[in-house]
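Please, structure for the following, as tokens.
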Amino acid sequence: MQVFAINPLTKEINTVEIADTKEALQELIGFSTIDSDEIDDNGDRLFFDEECFIRQQGNVGRFKVDSLAPVAGIGVIVNCKDGKTFQSALINAQELLKRVTYL
């Protein structure tokens, strides 16, 4: 599946091809403790390290999508309507770029 990886340190959004599994998301994010927030009504979600602010990591960068709470480290946009099945994000890169703010 194609997902969007948001890297706040480099301020880049990259299209990445990964397997449609939770383990693939965890590997891309870099941690096994992941959580998500809905970014729109079509099932696209922002997946991120659930403990991103507890870890005391230096120099990872922060960002937010729209008015969601800020996230530290890598975030991944994936379509996941039922919370179990992952598929390619429906949002396009240009639209996502307009909605991401680096902090």
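The longest strand covers residues 2-7. Residues 2-102 form one domain.
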